[in-house]
Amino acid sequence: MRYLMVLIALLISFNSYGYYFQSLRPVDFMDNKVLDTSVTNIDATKYLRVIASLAETCYELKVYDSTGEFIGVYTVASDGLVDNVSLKGIVGLGEDRNVNIILPKGHSVYLKSETGSAITTGDFSIQCLGL
Fold it and tell me: Is residue 16 part of a domain?
Protein backbone atom coordinates (compact mmCIF):
# COMPACT_ATOMS: atom_id res chain seq x y z
CA MET A 1 0.00 0.00 0.00
CA ARG A 2 2.84 2.39 0.83
CA TYR A 3 4.39 1.82 -2.63
CA LEU A 4 1.09 2.62 -4.28
CA MET A 5 0.89 5.91 -2.38
CA VAL A 6 4.47 6.81 -3.41
CA LEU A 7 3.67 6.00 -7.05
CA ILE A 8 0.55 8.19 -6.97
CA ALA A 9 2.52 11.05 -5.38
CA LEU A 10 5.18 10.82 -8.11
CA LEU A 11 2.59 10.80 -10.89
CA ILE A 12 0.90 13.87 -9.45
CA SER A 13 4.29 15.63 -9.22
CA PHE A 14 4.82 15.63 -13.00
CA ASN A 15 3.25 18.50 -14.90
CA SER A 16 1.71 18.34 -18.39
CA TYR A 17 5.15 18.77 -20.01
CA GLY A 18 6.57 15.70 -18.25
CA TYR A 19 8.91 17.68 -16.01
CA TYR A 20 9.14 16.97 -12.32
CA PHE A 21 7.09 19.64 -10.61
CA GLN A 22 9.03 22.72 -9.63
CA SER A 23 7.65 26.16 -9.14
CA LEU A 24 8.14 28.28 -12.21
CA ARG A 25 10.14 31.48 -11.87
CA PRO A 26 10.50 34.57 -14.05
CA VAL A 27 13.13 33.93 -16.74
CA ASP A 28 12.51 36.84 -19.12
CA PHE A 29 10.46 39.98 -19.66
CA MET A 30 9.45 42.09 -22.65
CA ASP A 31 12.28 44.40 -23.68
CA ASN A 32 10.17 47.49 -22.80
CA LYS A 33 8.38 45.75 -19.86
CA VAL A 34 4.97 47.36 -20.58
CA LEU A 35 3.71 48.17 -24.07
CA ASP A 36 1.46 51.25 -24.33
CA THR A 37 -0.41 50.52 -27.56
CA SER A 38 -1.41 54.17 -28.01
CA VAL A 39 2.31 54.89 -28.51
CA THR A 40 3.40 51.61 -30.15
CA ASN A 41 0.55 49.90 -31.99
CA ILE A 42 0.24 46.13 -32.33
CA ASP A 43 -0.30 45.87 -36.09
CA ALA A 44 -2.37 43.26 -37.93
CA THR A 45 0.00 43.00 -40.88
CA LYS A 46 3.47 43.38 -39.34
CA TYR A 47 5.11 41.58 -36.43
CA LEU A 48 6.16 43.63 -33.40
CA ARG A 49 9.26 42.24 -31.68
CA VAL A 50 8.93 42.42 -27.89
CA ILE A 51 11.75 40.08 -26.78
CA ALA A 52 14.96 40.04 -28.82
CA SER A 53 16.18 36.67 -27.53
CA LEU A 54 14.74 34.53 -24.74
CA ALA A 55 17.24 33.97 -21.94
CA GLU A 56 15.69 30.60 -21.00
CA THR A 57 12.95 28.32 -22.30
CA CYS A 58 9.55 29.66 -21.28
CA TYR A 59 6.83 27.20 -20.18
CA GLU A 60 4.21 29.71 -19.13
CA LEU A 61 3.34 33.32 -19.87
CA LYS A 62 1.96 35.66 -17.26
CA VAL A 63 -0.16 38.00 -19.40
CA TYR A 64 -1.33 41.47 -18.37
CA ASP A 65 -3.72 42.93 -20.93
CA SER A 66 -6.05 45.90 -21.01
CA THR A 67 -6.44 46.06 -24.81
CA GLY A 68 -9.45 43.74 -24.96
CA GLU A 69 -8.24 42.34 -28.30
CA PHE A 70 -6.92 39.01 -29.61
CA ILE A 71 -3.11 39.11 -29.76
CA GLY A 72 -1.00 36.43 -31.45
CA VAL A 73 2.27 35.40 -29.76
CA TYR A 74 4.85 34.32 -32.34
CA THR A 75 8.45 33.14 -32.17
CA VAL A 76 11.26 33.37 -34.69
CA ALA A 77 14.22 30.99 -34.53
CA SER A 78 17.57 32.43 -33.55
CA ASP A 79 18.51 32.78 -37.25
CA GLY A 80 16.22 35.85 -37.24
CA LEU A 81 14.52 35.11 -40.56
CA VAL A 82 10.96 36.41 -40.37
CA ASP A 83 10.04 33.64 -42.87
CA ASN A 84 10.42 31.23 -39.92
CA VAL A 85 7.67 32.83 -37.82
CA SER A 86 5.63 30.35 -35.79
CA LEU A 87 2.33 31.10 -34.00
CA LYS A 88 2.58 29.79 -30.43
CA GLY A 89 -0.70 31.03 -28.99
CA ILE A 90 -3.37 33.70 -28.91
CA VAL A 91 -3.84 35.77 -25.75
CA GLY A 92 -5.66 38.90 -24.75
CA LEU A 93 -9.30 39.95 -24.41
CA GLY A 94 -8.44 42.15 -21.48
CA GLU A 95 -7.56 39.28 -19.17
CA ASP A 96 -4.72 39.00 -16.70
CA ARG A 97 -3.91 35.29 -16.64
CA ASN A 98 -1.29 32.61 -17.01
CA VAL A 99 -1.03 30.74 -20.31
CA ASN A 100 0.72 27.37 -20.76
CA ILE A 101 3.02 27.74 -23.74
CA ILE A 102 6.51 26.67 -24.80
CA LEU A 103 8.81 29.36 -26.19
CA PRO A 104 12.34 28.03 -26.87
CA LYS A 105 15.48 29.61 -25.44
CA GLY A 106 17.22 31.95 -27.88
CA HIS A 107 14.11 32.63 -29.98
CA SER A 108 12.70 36.12 -30.52
CA VAL A 109 9.11 36.81 -29.45
CA TYR A 110 6.75 38.86 -31.61
CA LEU A 111 3.17 40.08 -31.28
CA LYS A 112 0.56 40.65 -33.97
CA SER A 113 -3.09 41.69 -33.82
CA GLU A 114 -5.38 38.82 -34.75
CA THR A 115 -8.48 41.01 -35.18
CA GLY A 116 -7.65 42.34 -38.66
CA SER A 117 -6.90 45.87 -37.47
CA ALA A 118 -4.20 47.53 -35.40
CA ILE A 119 -4.53 47.62 -31.62
CA THR A 120 -4.20 51.26 -30.55
CA THR A 121 -5.59 51.42 -26.99
CA GLY A 122 -4.62 49.74 -23.75
CA ASP A 123 -1.48 48.34 -22.19
CA PHE A 124 0.05 44.90 -22.69
CA SER A 125 2.82 43.02 -20.94
CA ILE A 126 4.09 39.46 -20.72
CA GLN A 127 6.41 37.81 -18.26
CA CYS A 128 8.03 34.51 -19.25
CA LEU A 129 8.14 31.81 -16.57
CA GLY A 130 10.50 28.84 -16.67
CA LEU A 131 12.37 26.34 -14.56
Answer: no
Question: 28-76: per-residue pLDDT in tens?
Answer: 999 989 999 999 999 999 999 999 999 999 999 999 999 999 999 999 8
pTM, full prediction: 0.78
Does residue 5 belong to any structural domain of this protein? no
User: Among candidates 44, 99, 37, which has minimal Cα distance to 66?
Assistant: 37
CATH for 55:
2.60.120
Q: Are 50 and 35 in contact (CB under 8 A)?
A: yes
Within a domain: 119: yes
Range 44-64 burial, b when 16+ CB lie within 10 A, else e: eeebbebbeebebbbbbbbbe
Residue 8 scores a pLDDT above 60: no
